[in-house]
Amino acid sequence: MRPRIALNIKSVEYEFLQEQEQLCSKSELLLQSNPVHKKVPVLVHNGKPICESNIIVEYIDECFPNLRAAVTAASEEEKNRAADQLKEVVVRMEGAHVEVSRGKDFFGGDRIGFVDIAFGSMLGWLRAVQVILGGVKLLDEEKTPGLVKWAEKFSADPAVKDVLPETGKLIEFSKLLIAAIRAAAAED
Question: What's the predicted TM-score (pTM) here?
Answer without folding.
Answer: 0.64
